[in-house]
Amino acid sequence: MRYLLFLLPAALLMAQTPSATRKAPDHKALAAAAAVPQKNFKESGSPTAPITLELYTDYQCPACRNFYMNVLPSLNTDFVATGKVRLIHRDFPLQMHQFSRVAVKYANAAGQIGKYDVVANQLFVTQPQWEENGNIDAVVSKVLSPADLEKVKAIVKTDTHLDDSVTKDVAQGNQDGLRETPTTVIVARGKREVIGGIVTYPVLKAYLNQKLGQ
Amino acid sequence: MKYWRWLLIAGRLGLAILFLWAGIAKVREPWLQFAISIDEFKVVPDTWLEPIARILPWCEIALGIALIPGILSRWFATIATGMLAWFLFIGIRAKVVGLTVDCGCFGSGHGTIDAMWFVEHIAMLLLGGAVTAGEFLMRRAPRSVPEPELTR
What we know:
heterodimer; A: 214 residues; Glutaredoxin; 11 helices; 5 strands; 54% helix; 13% strand; disordered N terminus; B: 152 residues; mainly alpha
């Protein structure tokens, strides 16, 4: 029985090793994959940054809009762009918000064509408009070219895996014990600190500087 | 008299436990979380958030410890009652202004300010008030009645 324990990882490794007998790669699929940005579009900053900040938001949540518009720009300039913080956006659409899930689909579809930041920003900025009627097409069309908008709409309609990352984010959020959005998870020295609610930038800055100084 | 003395000690220890609980719950969390809770009340400027968030929980712990031995207890009970009155006041103000606040009183997630919060805080304030009044009254009352001198 104990030999099986050694054999199992070896078998798994062999299963993952490319084999000469496998089917030849589909060049069309590879080309299509190359067109898709390889970097995770929800992440920014240096992967080796001493602090990782995971930001859980809901596109229809007013406090998230406040955080996105008033805290995030300074955070990006002072910490993310300087390599001190790695920022990961996580989606946590709340049940109470009717159009959150649709908004997430648009943002993530835009991410697949390299326009995540533009669309996510537009969704937060125009939140008061689209949350009235759910007309997300109208607001997104203002920041995308007609061709890009068609691509995004096609992905939203056809990509059955579009919600996979959201499902993962929500599962992680539940594991983190999220109670509200926005919630910031600060990961430093392997320790996860879950901070619920909206924080003002000067206070967040002081906290991050304290963490960096430790 | 003896009965009242024991009741007063129990009340004072109850008050001490409340303050210790509140302080320890906050200290166990990142101070940033408590700063967010304070900010939600909108009663102090941004520059005060960090010092208050870092100092207040330790003050609560110190006050909780100070209430235990019964030395200068009437003054410590007065401070505790004053703090409880202030917390209740800013809670009422938040409700009147229409703020949705996670009070952070006993750490995050203790709940937003609602009817239950008011019941809890009024009860705590009454406890504080009763202990303070009791401590002052006990101080004035003689500890034991001196026995009359017997003359032969």
